[in-house]
Amino acid sequence: MKKSAHGGGQGEPTRILLDSNSYFRLAQSIRPLLGVEFGNKRYCLYITRDLDKEFERNPALQTKFHWVREAEYKANRQNTLNLPQNRQAEARHLFDFLTNHARTENLSVSPVDVRTLCLGYMLGIPVITDDLDMLALANAFQIATMTTLDLVKLMLDENHIDMKKVRQICAYWQYERDLPSPFSLFRKQYKNLFNEEPPPPV
User: Fold this and answer.
1) Where do the domains of the chain lie?
2) At CA 189, angle to CA 160 and CA 156, rounded to 5?
3) For residues 156 and 152, what is the distance between their CA atoms, to the nearest angstrom?
4) pLDDT digits (tens, 9 = 90+) for 14-71
5) Where are the alpha helices (DSSP H) in the chain?
């Protein structure tokens, strides 16, 4: 994590925002994924309301992640984060600023990607993403980020999941050919985080 997130005091959970791909990589393996507090800091995962719109516009996503439409997952995706109405103008200004910077730096980020980063920035919470261009844009504006594998490690450390579940998740990613990074980088990060070789696909 690049920057400490706000929240986590006695009265509120420490919120974490997932981008679409991180949600797709985890939601089948950790159920329910969203809106469940875990760990001493009461971490709690959310998505943006853009995820469902993005899914419905993309036939490839609908084919690959057909389970997303099942009632269990649809109900869990009610756990979204949104800005209050009185901050919408500020959000639009920030969106334009980040979009212009991304264009200048030749970063390939979608409007949904930028809105996700804007929300993370304005709420002072980390964004989970494996997208290199999103990570570069976030870094330029000191927006807190974690990768999906970092989040899995956090869940392990906070006893939200066990090592058996970690291996199951990562084996499934390999089987689905949906690793969050090229295998050589994934292997290196996995070994650094978990002190073992990644599991084979199952």
Assistant:
1) 14-148
2) 10
3) 6
4) 999 999 999 999 999 999 999 999 999 999 999 999 999 999 999 999 999 999 999 9
5) 20-26, 50-57, 59-64, 71-76, 88-104, 111-123, 132-140, 148-157, 163-175, 183-194
Nearest alpha-carbon partner for 54 in 96, 116, 106: 116
Closest to 18 in 3D by CA, of 9, 32, 192: 32
Contact residues for 122 (Cβ-Cβ < 8 A; gap 6+): 83, 87, 90, 91, 94
Tokens of 11: 């009265």
Question: Could you give the CA distance from residue 170 to residue 198 in angstroms, rounded to a whole number?
Answer: 7
Strand 43-46 with 14-18, pairing: parallel
What CATH number is given for 14-148 in this structure?
A: 3.40.50.1010
Single out the residue of 160, 166, 176 nearest to residue 197, CA to CA: 166
Q: Which amino acid is at 11?
A: G
Q: Which residues, 6+ apart, have CB-to-CB distance to 165 below 8 Å?
A: 29, 30
